[in-house]
Design a protein that fits this description.
about 475 residues; alpha+beta; 3-stranded mixed beta sheet; 15 strands; about 35% helix; disordered N terminus; disordered C terminus; transmembrane helix; transmembrane; membrane
């Protein structure tokens, strides 16, 4: 069944409307990010010339374009007090933040949970929308408006705006081939939970994943340029850290957010964003500054089948999986879950090992005294003294024995980086500027930094593509 289409525009002016065309109060609206998916029915005209010539085909080609999904909701119980009516879920702390419900320390009245991300929410779904022309425009609108205030961290804003200019916006032919001499391509890979990563593909539609991962490709690329292995390793590590930081920052928008931008850091919840607006309507920006369309059930089925979007109930039909459940934080990644279970098992085994060693120590002490002492009375007295010493030894053993987890951590510690950093920095940035750290300490949060224009500051990227407009 086709999804009920709810238009993003009214009579010439943008407005989210209900199914009868009635404009909804922007302060009663909320939204959340669902994730990316691959639309393999898309037509790629922008980069088809280079790929068509490389593949020996025509100038027009099919392409599995990456598209972004988000959903909008309305609170029918809204009373007209703006963001002060809602407490907002903090995915980092795993708890609800009710500080938005008061101005100047005075509680405003209603303080309902902004919970459109939860299965039993009372928010009503307005519609699901897709960004059809890559993700750059959507990210740009989010980061410089509501994102800037939600993070409340200029370094986080600079990091995200820097890397959004680096990620590929289409399937791109690379300079390095695989071991068999076959062409390789680069694009984003949608992951479960609304995450993403860089991936290497073996076809011009970027639908068939290569056995070579991005880290291996990067090392091979720099080695082909005459650099040491450590250079490629460092660049690959920079990208891996950037992806992890990106996905973690996007968690803020996988939970329900007001359409009207806000700030929990004071100023009466007012959001003075990076673009110079105050309390901008983020949903309005999505609708007017990006190439947005209403998603249909085919889009949701494809995204759900690929396993890359968060759970959403669309008119009593559930798509996707995962998300922020009631009273819980975001589900742990498999490796994180394994690490926690492994730690618990390690502690249990460590305790059992200490108990077993204590018993063996006592048993050995008793046998030694039976061998070298003939007198039963002496043996008894010495046995008592031995037991006392055994108890003292047991106490010291709990203090001295190193846990298996500590030994494992030492064994798997990452190698030290002994490369000439100045040479590496120059190889990445021709201007000789050292790449900015991905994330600064929390003590610098809230400070307004420089608005770096032009080329992004952290371009730790080789030029993989045939064109010279953007470096990868």
């Amino acid at each position: 069944m086709e999804l009920e289409r709810r238009h993003l525009g009214g009579d010439g002016d943008f407005a989210l409307v209900d199914k009868d065309g009635k404009e909804l109060d922007p302060d009663s609206l909320a939204w959340r990010y669902l994730g990316l998916f691959m639309d393999c029915d898309a037509q790629d005209d922008e980069h088809s010339d280079d790929q068509g010539q490389a593949d020996g085909g025509s100038s027009s080609s099919r392409y599995c374009r990456r598209k972004l999904l988000w959903a909008a909701y309305v609170d029918r119980r809204y009373r007209g007090n703006g963001v002060e009516e809602y407490q907002i879920y903090d995915p980092t702390l795993g708890e609800w933040d009710s500080s938005t419900c008061s101005r100047s320390g005075v509680f405003s009245g209603r303080c309902a949970k902004l919970d459109c991300h939860e299965p039993d929410t009372r928010f009503e779904l307005i519609g699901v929308y897709k960004e059809t022309n890559g993700m750059y425009d959507w990210w740009e609108q989010l980061f410089k408006h509501e994102g800037y205030c939600v993070w409340n961290d200029n370094d986080a804003y600079q990091t995200m705006t820097t890397w959004m200019k680096v990620w590929p916006d289409s399937c791109q032919l690379l300079d390095i081939t695989d071991n068999g001499g076959n062409a390789l391509y680069l694009d984003l890979m949608p992951l479960s939970g609304g995450d993403m990563k860089l991936a290497i593909y073996k076809d011009s539609t970027c639908s068939k994943v290569s056995s070579m991962d991005y880290a291996t490709y990067t090392k091979k690329y720099y080695k082909s340029l005459g650099y040491r292995d450590r250079t490629g390793y460092n660049v690959a590590r920079t990208y891996a850290e950037a992806i992890d930081t990106w996905n973690a920052r996007m968690n803020s928008f996988k939970v329900c957010q007001p359409c009207i931008a806000y700030n929990v850091g004071g100023n009466n919840n007012n959001c003075d964003d990076k673009a110079g607006y105050t309390n901008v309507d983020q949903c309005y920006k999505f609708g007017t500054k990006t190439k947005l369309e209403v998603a249909d059930d085919g889009d949701l089925i494809a995204a759900s089948t690929q396993g890359s979007i968060l759970r959403i109930n669309v008119y009593n039909k559930v798509y996707g999986k995962g998300g922020f459940a009631i009273g819980t934080s975001f589900p742990m990644k498999p490796l994180a879950a394994v690490a926690v279970v492994g730690l618990a098992i390690g502690l249990l085994l460590s305790r059992q090992t200490l108990i077993r060693r204590d018993r063996q120590r006592r048993r050995r002490g008793s046998l030694l005294k039976e061998s070298f002492v003939g007198d039963k009375l002496k043996r008894s007295r010495r046995g008592e003294r031995t037991m006392k010493r055994g108890e003292e030894d047991t106490v010291s053993s709990y203090e001295d024995v190193e846990s298996p987890n500590a030994q494992r951590d030492k064994a798997y510690a990452p190698p030290s980086v002994d490369e000439d950093e100045s040479e590496w920095a120059k190889s990445i940035n021709p201007r000789g500027k050292v790449t900015k750290d991905l994330d600064k300490s929390a003590s610098r949060r809230g400070r307004r930094g420089r608005n770096y224009g032009g080329r992004p500051q952290a371009r730790a990227v080789p030029n993989h593509r045939r064109t010279r407009t953007t470096s990868f």
